[in-house]
């Protein structure tokens, strides 16, 4: 069984002290640093680029960095994020003219590759590329903004993708992004996810000068995930 990985989305962090925020949340038990990259074109918001990823690596962050590209066109920026220290690079099929080529580009750059599916995007894009993806990310909100509510229909989609992964025999992580909280992470896990992006549910905690302020939230998430594993 795949280890359950918690991936804080730095979109919800305090950017005035981002390195410290990331250090603290990793020290509290998080596994992956999740980057939401938006271009004000594919999605109606503008966020961060490769320089932020590079800065965190130079700061000393050694955890895997999971870069979710919400940009169009997508191929141009992939080598920049690979050079900046990305571990995973995932993109939306709608943002690439040639999905197979883009997946190969990511792997050729030395990163793990993945596809991202919006709530209404069909899973048929996966049919011919299951051997080229290391991660499948399902959006449980519409991309573009943090703090949205989880879309319940995503649970059925998770179950479908879990079956596809199991039948493929491939080692593929199944990630969920959007509205993940302590009170729903167990049912998300039970539907098949093994990697959980959480932004406001983690960084939304009171920002007091306490490096351990995320401990209780991450532990509560771990406790809920453990119930699903029984």
Task: Describe the model.
- By secondary structure, this protein is α/β, with parallel strands linked by helices.
- The protein has one domain: Aldolase class I (TIM Barrel, Alpha-Beta Barrel), CATH 3.20.20.
- An 8-stranded parallel β-sheet has the order 1-8-7-6-5-4-3-2.
- Helix 5 links the parallel strand 6 and strand 7.
- The chain starts with a strand and ends with a helix.
- The relative contact order is 0.17.
Low-confidence parts, pLDDT < 50 over ≥5 residues?
A: none
Arithmetic mean of pLDDT: 93
The helix count comes to 8
Kindly name the structural category: alpha/beta
CATH superfamily: Aldolase class I
Radius of gyration: 16 Å
**How are the strands ordered across the major sheet?**
1-8-7-6-5-4-3-2
Number of distinct beta strands:
8
> Strand-residue fraction?
15-25%
Query: What is the terminal-to-terminal distance?
Result: 12 Å
Task: Provide the CATH architecture.
Answer: Alpha-Beta Barrel
CATH fold annotation: TIM Barrel
**Percentage of residues assigned to helices:** 25-40%
Spell out the helices and strands N to C: EHEHEHEHEEHEHEHH
The number of domains is 1
- What is the CATH C level class, in words? Alpha Beta
Largest sheet composition: 8 strands, parallel
Overall 3D form: globular
